[in-house]
Amino acid sequence: MKRFLIVPVLVLFVSFGCAQKATVKPEAEQPQKEQKAEETKVQKPAEAAPEAQKESKIEKAETIKSEEAEAAQPGEEGLFKDIHFDFDKYNIQDTYRSDLKSVATWMRKNTAAKLSVEGHCDDRGTNEYNLALGDRRAKAVKDYLVSLGVPSSRIATISYGEEKPLCTEHTEECWAKNRRAHFVVLK
Amino acid sequence: MNARKLYALVLFFLCWLLSASTAVAKIYIDITSPSLKQLQIAVYDLPGPSGEEISGVIRDDLTFTGLFTCADKASFIESVSRPVDPKNWIPLGIEAAVKGRVVQASPLTVMVSLYDTSDGKEIFSRQYRAAKDETRSMAHEIAGDIYAAFTGKPGIFRTRIAFVGEEAGTKGIYLMDWDGNRARRLGPKGSFVLAPRWSHGGTKIVYSRERGRQWGIYLLDLQGMTEKRIFVSNGINMAGNFFPADNSFVFSSSKDGTPDIYIDNQGNVRKITSTHGINVSPAVSPDGGSIAFVSDRGGSAQIYVMRRDGEDVRRVTFQGSYNTSPSWSPSGDRIVFSGRRGGKNQIFIVRPDGSELMQLTDVGNNEDPTFSPDGRYIAFSSDRDRAKGIYIMRANGESQRRITPKNLKAFGPNWSPN
Predict the structure, then answer these.
(1) Which of A73, A135, A158, A170 should we substitute to test contact with B (largest number of B Cβ atoms within 10 Å)?
(2) Where do the DSSP E strands lie in B178-225?
């Protein structure tokens, strides 16, 4: 539609220039012509359907999907303490090795249990990079647990980056709290 | 057809032929000129229902570009219905005038004429028609036509920005006009969503969404308002953008262990990075030949550029220890990104070869930059007014302003291609 509109504009510029020299006044004709040629319908953009319709359509797509798709597995939280990381780092600090050893011991005893390790970040980084950083944190924990003899197949990882903070203050204390690996035992 | 009409038509055609051989339309404003002079324009309030609102939008649009200044209405000597007389305008330095009227309210029909006040000639005269609830769209369309008449380039006034919004703890993909008006949620509800990216045609949006402890990549078709999951695996999966010519797209995934960059070509997935650490946030260059991305392979998060086959990797950023979120200018001559300086994230632009680094923001944290399709503006998210919101500025950092409402937490903007 845009390209179509440009042409009449070009033509108009020139036609006025020429009209002067030819001492003819096509202006009287032109606007009439213009009105026909250039009547511009402002089309509703595709997404500008009534609000309710939009919502329901998306919701519908969602509903259809959720029937076949995996629902979030219920899990038990709070069995193990979170372990924490330095800013923009994903190495496991020595202070948390004993905590992870007790997680590994518990996993070796409860052979039916599966574990989900969630990686989280503080909100000082950018969202996408933080999602990757959270992924590395969760995997670092998983790798350590595997090295302690927990089968890899029993540990899943997921990153929430900075999307699921425990607190939202802009203080070092709060940031440190949010930089964590969190454990969920899956049923 | 009478003789006069025929004569006009022939003249019209001859002129058109002439124009084809000599030059294109007169360019009033050369937007590539570094010493650009603003054009002063008089935009009348169009008489009739919604006329004032329409004229207001036109003025706002033109003013934001930095190419126009809108003359004070108090200086308008002529009536809106009278032809333009140069002697009323030339002494004031006003170079153009917009007149017209609202012909009818439903369907909203508006007649607009643009005049060159130096000779009183009409540059164009057009009739616009739209449904009542599309008043703002129509006003943007008129502003775009005025902009195009003076610059020879299409404006951005009908473009839109997709972003992630959060209300009452619920995130979703939102869409709004480029000026922040008509922000609306497209869904989906109640999940974690990230990184919306437009398809080249502007009809689809690809993004990442968490569901059932998995991050999947989803494609939303705006025409049918249907959502489709196009990739999922264990670990994280984050949408990059599409290649210009085909349906293949780039994304980052940790499906094989560490986060790496992949290309999906109709379901054929190929890995194009493989270092031990993080490779994330891929952005395809406008010509489709290169990919900018973020990697910590050098010990800190930095921007790199590689060929689309993953070869010829070159580091772009060397200052600071945290440079992320690269995005290309439409001509491919600049990369805009978010870099951490003094504990805060700021917006920078740089040439793809690493030269001509320039900082554009200095207040609060500023992230997720994205260029307008004409390359003259940048949208980004900022927490400078506490709650995160979307801001726009000129590509040189001037005229920064928040466009999302204060009560809406908003981030991750991506500017539509058209």
Answers:
(1) A135
(2) 184-187, 193-198, 204-211, 214-221
